[in-house]
Amino acid sequence: MDVHQQPEEDRQAAELDPQLFRHEAGRMVVALTRLFGMHNLALAEDVVQDAFCRAIEVWKFKGVPANPSAWLMATAKHRAVDLLRRERTARTYEPELTRMIESEWTLVPTIHEVFSAHAIQDDQLRMMFSCCHPRLREDARVALVLHILCGFSVGEIAAAFVSGQAATEKRITRSKKVLAQSKKLFDVTAPGEFSARLPAVQRALYLLFNEGYHGASPETAVRAELCREAMRLTAMLLEHPLGKRPSTYALAALMDLHAARLPARVDAAGNLNSLLDQDRSQWDQRLVAEGVRLLEVSAKGSNVTEYHVEAAIAAVHARAKRMEDTEWGAIVALYDTLMKIRPSPIVALNRAIAVAQEEGPERGLEEIGLIPYRERLDGYPFYWAALGELELRRGGYEVAREHFGTATKLARNAMERRFLEQRVRACEGIKP
Amino acid sequence: MAEFLYLYRGGASPTSPAEGQAVMQKWMTWMKELGEKGHLKAVGSPLEKTGKLVSGGQKIVSDGPFAEAKDLIGGYTLVMAKDIDEAAELSKGCPIFEANGAVEVRPILQMNM
Predict the structure, then answer these.
(1) Which of A202, A225, A257, B110 has the highest CB neighbour count under 10 A?
(2) Which of A276, A345, A339 is nearest to A309 (CA)?
(3) Taking the model in full, what pTM does it have?
C-alpha cells in the first residue's frame, strides 16, 4: 500500500478536521458491517481499530498524507481482504454478499464496491435505521448512533451523558446484541418499512441534538459536538429520497434555528446566558436564514409534527431583534399546539413561562400550578429557576431566593451552578 | 553534537478515534519541534508488532513478538544532541509517556580517531 508519498522534509502538522477520525471511523464501520454482516459488527470494529492504529503509527512519523480518508479506507480494505481470505469459511457473512466473498474472482471488486462513496453514504443511513430498532429504548438508540456512526467511544458517551461508564458499556453491549439478531443492515429501499421506522430515527436525532443543546455535560465543546453530529446525520437523512419529508425538513429547521443561538448561549468566560439575556447580535444569521428556509419547505405537507411547532417557536425568537420585540402571544399559541401533539411537563412549563412574558408573573405562576404531573419537574433545576424568576419579578425575594437555592442544588454541572448562584445573589442584591 | 537513537517502547493504544487523532497530532508537533531545534537527524519509522527472530548456531527462525507488550519496540528516531543528558532531557517531550510507554535513549557509538 503506497498511498503515502510525502517527502520527509515537507512533514508538518497538517490542519486536520478535528472530527476526521471520528467520522472516518463511522464510515469504515458501516462499510465493513455491510460486508461482514450485522452479526459481525464487533469484527468490523476490530478491523477499524486496527486500521486506525496503523494510520496513527505511520502518520506520527511520516506526517498526514494528502488524502487521509483514502489512506484509511485503503488500509481498512486491505485488512478486510486479508481477513476474508484467511477466514472465508470460518464464519457466515452478509447473506447477499457471501457468494461474492467466497470467490477469489469477486472478492476484491466486492470490497471496492462496498467502500465506494455512494455505498458508504447509503450504508450510513441504513445503519442509522438499524440503530433505531423498535426493541431498544430511546436513549439506547441515541447511544448506538453516537457509538457506531459518530465514532464516540463508550467512555466519551458516558461523559457526554454524565452517566456511569459501566452502565453505558452494558447498555451498548446489550443493544448491539439486539442489532446482531439481523444479519443485514436495515433496508432503506422499502417505502413501507422506511416510513414505519422514520419517526424513531427522527426522534433519536432530535434527542441527540437536545442532549447537546440542553444536556448535562459540563464540556461546552462536547455539547456543541453532539449538536453538530445531529445536524450532520439529519442532513444525511434529507439526502435520501424517502427521508425528504416535511417532518425531516422541520427537524433540520429546528436544529438550525437553535444552533444559531449557540454562540450567545455561553459567553467567553463559560457562563450560561438565558434566552432573555442573550446578545442577539451574536446569533448566527446564516443558520437563522437556513432554518427559516427549511421551515418554509417543511410547511408543504398537511401533517404538523412537534418538529414543525418547535421550529416555529424558535423562528419567532429568531425574528425578534430585541427580547422586548418577541411575539409572546404567538409563542403561547404554538405551545398550545405542542401540548396537543406531544404533551409533557417541560412543554407545559415553557408555555407557562411564555404566558408570564405576555400576561405577567402572577399568570405564569398560576399556569405552572396547573401543570399536569408537575411533580415530574421536581428534579429539573430550571423548573425551580422559572419559579424563582417569576417570584422575583413580582417581588417575592425571599421565596425566589429559596427556589433558586433549590435549583442550585440540582445543577448538573459547574456552568449551570454558576448561573443559578448568580440568580440567588440577584435576589439578595435587591432585597429591601 | 552526537547522535542518539530513540527506541519507543510500549505505550497503550488510544481508546477512541478522537483520542487517536489527538495523540497523533501531539507526536507530529513533538517531531516538528525536534526538527526546528535542529535535533532531528532522521525521523525514523514505526515498526510492525510482529516479525521473525533468527537465532543460534542453528539459525532457528521463530515468530515474534520477542518482548512483552510494554517492552515491544514500536519505532525509532535518530536525534542529535550535545550529550546523553541532553538527549534524555529532550525525550521527555515525547507523547509516549502519556500512554505509559518509555523511550530508550542509546548513544550511537562514534569512531574517535
Answers:
(1) A257
(2) A339
(3) 0.88
